[in-house]
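Researcher: Next entry in the queue.
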Amino acid sequence: MVSLGKILIVEDDLAICELLAMNFRLVGHPYRTAASAESARRICQVERFDLLLLDVMLPDGDGFALAQALAPLEIPVIFLTAKADLSDRLRGFDLGAVDYVVKPFEILELLARIKSTLRRSGGLPRQTELHGLTIRFDEHRVFKAGREVALTPTEYQLLETLARNQNIAMSREKLLELAWGYGFEGDTRTVDVHITKLRKKLGLEDAIRTVYKVGYRLETPR
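Model: Structure for this entry, 222 residues:
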């Protein structure tokens, strides 16, 4: 699996915590969970993290105070909260948060925000190996058995999107958003054409699965 940045989830809502944990396991993020500010402080004393996901409202305090207490560790922070007030968002950014996500959120959007944050902070790997391929993320290059495979920019972006969200079923519409860009207005059949090309070029016929009535999923061992 792709080895991604290690994340500490600080969230007392069990359902949300389990949703995040399940998706992090699928895409390959190492993670720990904490249901309180005190628990998060103790964990951060003995473990290193690449990102903190902090709920603003915790049973023994708030995420803002926790972020302030952990600031010397210089770990990027994304706040998760049901509070959408501008004053709360501004407070979060004043404390150095890199992002502020309001509940309920779409998990794929949150994963994209996490990826963007980790890329900026150096918490993402520069390359990964899966299904006999080496993907060099910084260079946007792909190698098979040591030989480079020529991909168009769009083919590469589609492959990286699938690799970053491995084992998650992704709709054609979502792949268009993430690989082509939010402004792309093409037909979803464009995704099918590019998936066919990726399968053939990279030998991923059995790895890129068609998910009935949904889209596609890149399956990797867990």
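Model: The mean pLDDT is 86.
Researcher: Noted, moving on.
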